[in-house]
Amino acid sequence: MSATEHGTMNLKLIVWRQSAPDQAGRFETYEAKNITPHHSFLEMLDVVNEDLIKAGQDPIAFDHDCREGICGMCSAVVNGVPHGGHERTTLCQLHMRKFKDGDAIYIEPWRARAFPILRDLVVDRGALDKLIQAAGYVSCHTGGVPDGNAVLVGKPEADYAMDAAECIGCGACVAACPNGAAMLFAGAKVSQLAELPQGQVEAPQRVAAMVKAMADQGFGNCSNHYECEGACPKGIKVKFIARLNREFTKALFLEKIGAISTVRVASDG
Amino acid sequence: MILDGKAPTGKIQDSWDKHKIDSLKLVNPANKRKYKVLVVGTGLAGASAAASLGELGYQVEAFCYQDSPRRAHSIAAQGGINAAKGYPNDGDSIYRLFYDTIKGGDFRAREADVWRLAQVSNNIIDQCVAQGVPFARDYAGYLDNRSFGGAQVSRTFFARGQTGQQLLLGAYSALSRQIGAGTVKMFARTEMLDLVVVDGEAKGITVRDLVTGEVRSHVGDAVVLATGGYVNVFYLSTNAMGCSVSAIWKAHKKGAYLANPCYTQIHPTCIPQAGDYQSKLTLMSESLRNDGRIWVPKKKEDCNKAPSEIPEDDRDYYLERKYPSFGNLAPRDIASRAAKEQCDEGRGVGPGGRGVYLDFSASIARLGEGTIRERYGNLFEMYERITDENAYKRPMRIYPAPHYSMGGLWVDYNLQSNIPGLFVLGEANFSVHGANRLGASALMQGLADGYFVIPYTIANYLAQTKPGKAKADHPEFKKSIADVTAERDRMLSINGKKTVTEFMREVGVLMWNNVGMARSQQTLNETLKKIPAIREEFWKNVKVTGTGGELNQQLENAGRTADFIDFAELLSQDALHREESCGGHFRVEHQYPDGEAKRDDANFAYSAAWEWKGTGKAPELHKEPLKFDNVHLAVRSYK
Amino acid sequence: MRLLSDSIGRKVVMAITGLLMVLFVVGHMLGNLSIFAGANGLNTYAEKLHGLPAVVWATRVVMLTAVLFHLVISIVITLENNKASPNKYAVDRKLRASFAGRNMIWTGLLLGGFIIFHLFHFTIRSVPGMDILAVQELSGRFDVFSMVAAAFGKVTTAVVYVVAMVMLYLHLSHGIQSTFQSVGLNNPKTMPGFVRFGSVLSVIFLIGYGAIPVAILFGLIGK
Ligand SMILES: Cc1cc2nc3c(=O)[nH]c(=O)nc-3n(C[C@H](O)[C@H](O)[C@H](O)COP(=O)(O)OP(=O)(O)OC[C@H]3O[C@@H](n4cnc5c(N)ncnc54)[C@H](O)[C@@H]3O)c2cc1C
Ligand code: HEM
Ligand code: HEM
Ligand code: SF4
Ligand code: F3S
Ligand code: FES
Q1: C-alpha radius of gyration, chain B, whole number
Q2: What DSSP character marks residue B453?
Q3: How do the residues of chain A divide into helix, strand and coil, expressed in percent and rounded to 5?
Q4: Residue pLDDT, tens place only, B121-138
Q5: Residue C223 has what pLDDT?
């Protein structure tokens, strides 16, 4: 079907505009005209921006890069739901055929204390990087590692790890969480690495450090609302939060009975 | 001038190991911390380099334009990564990977570099496994392999359809570990806009903070560029929106030679353009060609019919017809050109007649929909999300799209450019792929450069320079900051009528039509006439709103577009000068009767490294002759 | 690592204390249902119960600590969570979060209030401005039945209890399934079961407890 077989549509956009982190933001209304069903949501914003520029106004700033659903850069809340709420679909993969002529669409940035707004729809997600920097890795050195087949990994384990590893770090889980918690993001990473023999070794230290980092970065606690799972464009499941809780409890118990220590010596890393 | 790649001589099998011992100096551990290395780019090449150098004890500063190092476009790689492990016992070896890469590159790469790549490829897999990269495994727990990109052996390792993502997240985790440990300082949302050369050596970069707009310099003892590819010069490509030539172009303007820019790879299986509002093209993994049959209607008048209404005899399975032995699996450049020919003859399908069918009905009939869903389910899902068409019922529409750039900054065997202290890794250098890259070899190259080559070769340079030689108050830094600021201000002050996107689209369409899949003297000359006009209009009539002192995405794009306009000219000049067809560079004047690319080894067995002489001035050509002692030059044939 | 200050440590404490209270609520309901066996039923149960002071006091101590921890932590995390997500979206559309789940603090606090009132009402048996029928049976044992019957004879009291039971229902319809996730037992296979279990059990509480004031109010029992 080519675009011409569909009618084009006009939409009303109610967009959050904020010129800088320390400035107050407000909603502005714009018209998106002659949008075909084949426009992606971001291409629709491109169209609006071109008009704004021509009219000498500042275009709407929004994050995006790959536009194929893998880099995790695009990020906006559409009618109350991060990425617009279509299963396994990032904002850049959301197409306008999901809307109809005359629709009014609210477009807002991720909202969470850990994600300060930089401009319009652009937020600072550095807090997620901080979680990985805290311990979201295997402390192996470049070189001097065994052959890839030296340690066998069962297919089920590899698949489970891959399910968790599909996270694109977009932060929609945090944006969707009524508590501004990063449990789904952290749970996915903790689960992936705890499942693989290469990562099991330092699993207790990892979970301890990442849970602490979440608090330090200003993320909230989990109340099991599962809103994150609903909004995740990669279908990351809350079972990984359960795994996170399990890994935490296990480590806590082992530490309390003095079997292990989760404190890393500074020289590590 | 004749360039010397400083490739080691002697038996190629131990060239790299001997080189490490004989020719590469070391920096003693106590001194490492005194040296600062600036790494621009955090894709596979940059992240692996920054992590490894930081771990070794150097002070590292890393830069990327995205909001996180994890978002580099390496993330988008789907298919897999090659290595010469030979696990499947199907006759693979370092030599075979070496040979396939040289041949696949149409004999336009440096032997020793390619050998080294094949040699370290095995360490890469081990490294990634150790990092927790969830490669596909079989039920016994061993690493799984698939065959890819027309290779006769199964040497491709993969993690579902997201190999690049998983490898990058592995490198990103190693990088994050170093950032956490304080050995690497990360500057995200920071774009390099100039290279600073002090007394002939690369000693710093000038960047713009994309959030505050601040323009500042970073001083170092060496600069590593790993800034990716430039095929966005065609506007629509499979690259991310932010991928640009700017970093290497600015380095080029500071004296670094740019080699073989005309070697660009077009990927045959992408989702066609739906309309002119379109912002990028999405790649569909090549693996689809294993089970899909490619055809177009024989009769022009059928093109607008529903494919189901076109009887079997009226369909032209042109690849099977033209290349009986390889058929639908013909190499990328051949499959791409063939598709273009069909559409040029007016037999293309879909919007604008720019598409061919990739038909699964035969395989579905043979294997059942279940099997196809199992193999390609996620791709069919993505296709439907974008096109709203169900490819189980109706053939996919595909069309070639710009995908990868083999050309880049010229580097010697140590990955050092002609400017001492400037090292270039990954897609950004002109590298090992010659005139055409094999599938699953770019990820391999990026990680080889970052993990296993640069840590050795950069030490050799640093060991011979005093730490902290260049100071921030050196006039070169002041000048660089002034130049960058002036360029921004100029763009902001024009306030013309055309938007940045309109200019980028104009250059891109011109390049795609004239310098894309096929080039001729006439189209190239026409292009070279038009570009200066576009450049002139850009600097007179571009409209960039806002200011330089804030987050301003238009300003970012304006800078990238300006560089693409200049670079497009060099690309066309290179394409015009290379009077032969090889790999991704196809000159219609140079082909065999059957349409095969016609190489001219007598006159063009060299890498063309161009030196910048100023805007509008003809660049100077430097040749690096290519010698082949371990393979014999043969004509590629896929019949 | 810290049980009471790390996010997940607290989460586990919430689950365990919550679960303990659920157990109490189960037992208490079964006991209370003996009221449907008439005066003798309930009074015998009460008598037997108080015949085991050790059990009673053990339960009281455990419950008191559980409630206190549960209460304090819940307030702390709720404040933290509000701080972590200060701004709401213009459109309030939720894909998975339930009304019950989002109002745990309020249903919880009301429950807490109810418990205090309830203790004064039936255990200490003195609530200012309320006359509580505290009489003995001819046999001399305390007549819990009449006390309860008299209490729920009054519409206001009955309504207070029924409202409290609705709070309990809401709190637990999210709470029970939630505990399984908190202690890490959830996965796509088990989750639906836990959710069903939670809603069934909380409905049973609603009916089991709610039936008593309702039945008495409408004179089905008590005369
Ligand atoms: C859709 C797609 C699929 C692919 N599939 C495969 C495959 O299956 N197998 C395979 O081997 N190869 C594949 N490739 C090719 C491969 O992914 C790339 O060639 C490779 O990942 C490039 O890595 P890189 O590190 O060199 O550059 P990139 O990953 O592109 O990283 C570039 C980095 O430089 C930074 N940067 C760029 N400019 C600037 C600047 N001016 N200032 C600051 N920072 C800057 C960016 O922020 C980024 O961090 C694919 C490519 C695409 C587009
Ligand atoms: C004293 C007053 C009470 C308050 C203030 C209170 C508050 C809360 C809050 C805020 C939560 C959600 C915790 C979170 O966000 O994760 C919660 C969970 C819970 N509450 Fe209560 N509650 C109270 C009493 C009770 C009682 C009496 C019961 C049982 C009968 C109970 C059972 C539970 C259960 C089972 C959970 C789920 C724990 C989990 O999520 O793992 N609560 N409570
Ligand atoms: C209609 C519902 C209810 C009725 C009729 C009821 C009745 C009673 C009675 C008669 C007693 C006193 C028993 C005695 O001292 O002999 C009692 C005690 C108590 N009830 Fe209830 N109750 C109800 C609901 C609840 C609920 C929902 C809770 C908790 C969430 C609860 C918690 C308690 C506690 C903690 C005590 C004190 C037990 C002790 O003495 O330690 N009750 N209840
Ligand atoms: S878990 Fe899902 S929503 Fe959260 S960051 Fe990862 S991909 Fe995005
Ligand atoms: S939505 Fe928030 S409360 Fe937990 S389950 Fe997801 S993190
Ligand atoms: S832009 Fe990359 S995921 Fe949407």
Answers
A1: 24
A2: I
A3: 40, 15, 50
A4: 999 999 999 999 999 999
A5: 56
- DSSP E strands: which ranges in B284-340? 293-297, 315-316
The C-alpha R_g of chain C, in whole angstroms, comes to 19
Percent of chain A with pLDDT over 70: 96
Residue B308 DSSP label: G
Q: Which residues of B touch A265 (CB under 8 A)?
A: none
Distance of alpha carbon A169 from alpha carbon B173, whole angstroms: 13
The confidence band for A3, taking pLDDT boundaries of 50, 70 and 90, is: very low
The secondary structure of B482-538 as a DSSP string is HHHHHHHHHHHHH--SEEHHHHHHHHHHHHHHHHSS-B-HHHHHHHHHHHHHHHHHH
Alpha-carbon B35 to chain mean position: 30
Coil, strand or helix: which one is C173? helix
DSSP, collapsed to helix, strand or coil, labels residue B215 as strand
Which residue did the predictor score with more confidence, B78 or A12? A12
Of B462, B368, B363, nearest to B416 by C-alpha is B462
Are A83 and A178 contacting, i.e. CB atoms less than 8 angstroms apart?
no
Is A215 at the interface with chain B, CB within 8 A?
no
Cross-chain residue pair B76–A68, CB shorter than 8 Å: yes
pLDDT of residue A226: 97
What is the Cβ-side half-sphere exposure of residue B615, based on CA atoms within 13 angstroms?
A: 12
Tell me the pairing of strands B222-225 and B36-40: parallel
Q: Containing H/E element for C46?
A: helix C38-50
Interface pTM (ipTM) of the complex?
0.97
Summarize the confidence of residues B173-184 as an average pLDDT. 98
* Model confidence, pTM: 0.97
B245 close to B564: Cβ distance less than 8 angstroms: yes
According to DSSP, residue C90 is labeled S
Tens of pLDDT along A56-98? 999 999 999 999 999 999 999 999 999 999 999 999 999 999 9
Q: What does the alpha-carbon distance between residue C116 and residue B180 come to, in Å, rounded to a whole number?
A: 50
AA identity, residue B558? A
Residue B280 contacts residue A67 (beta carbons within 8 Å): yes
Give Cα separations from A134 to A74, A139, A211, A216 (angstroms).
24, 11, 9, 11
Nearest-by-CA chain C residue for A79: C91
User: What would the two tokens of residue B363 be?
Assistant: 């395989």
Residue with the nearest Cα to atom 37 of ligand 2? Answer: C175
How many whole angstroms from A184 Cα to the centroid of ligand 4? 7
